[in-house]
Amino acid sequence: xxxxxxxxxxxxxxxxxxxxxxxxxxxxxxxxxxxxxxxxxxxxxxxxxxxxxxxxxxxxxxxxxxxxxxxxxxxxxxxxxxxxxxxxxxxxxxxxxxxxxxxxxxxxxxxxxxxxxxxxxxxxxxxxxxxxxxxxxxxxxxxxxxxxxxxxxxxxxxxxxxxxxxxxxxxxxxxxxxxxxxxxxxxxxxxxxxxxxxxxxxxxxxxxxxxxxxxxxxxxxxxxxxxxxxxx
Length: 232
Hints:
The protein has two domains: 10-83, Phosphorylase Kinase, domain 1, CATH 3.30.200.20; 91-231, Transferase(Phosphotransferase) domain 1 (Transferase(Phosphotransferase), domain 1). It contains six helices and eleven strands. The protein has helices at 47-59, 91-94, 105-125, 180-185, 190-206, 222-227, and strands at 13-16, 21-26, 33-38, 68-74, 77-83, 129-131, 140-142, 148-150, 157-159, 165-167, 187-189. α3 packs antiparallel against α5.
């Protein structure tokens, strides 16, 4: 991966998440473009989340889920190799004053439909029932045609065929997208992802962040703002 990413050059850095930095690369063998996620030593996630993502992505196949091409563990180096998504993540379009102009209503509708199909597959149609637990704009990647793909399954939970909910003492995810019952009681279910999708849907339609903005006419969040139909 050193040669593929030009020794993890800053020029090839695509972004950084909870796992660590992500770099653009090109395989020497066939010149295929890839994205390499490298575990940071300061990462809040670790080997457990890495293994979780590898296992899940090897078993899940859907056009609206990002594809993992391989992985690497050598000493303290832990890396995941993904298909390269040239348009990066949804948040880079939604919340950028210039880029958001490229998202007309047809593109936004197509993105919403694609995320919905991917989520339906995870909850109902795959061999495993999967609860993602961290659905948000930065975890929605866009291909060359602006088709969305759900990514980052490090925090996802696998449930049995007849299991639709679970409980955990370790609440993980991103505040602003987590369902209240999950934050308060650690109870997660397919409904948790539906709640996150609802927040994501509001952000796609409005082009505004759920967190970080103050709406003086309502409850200081996008959800509180749109709950008053006069504001939306």
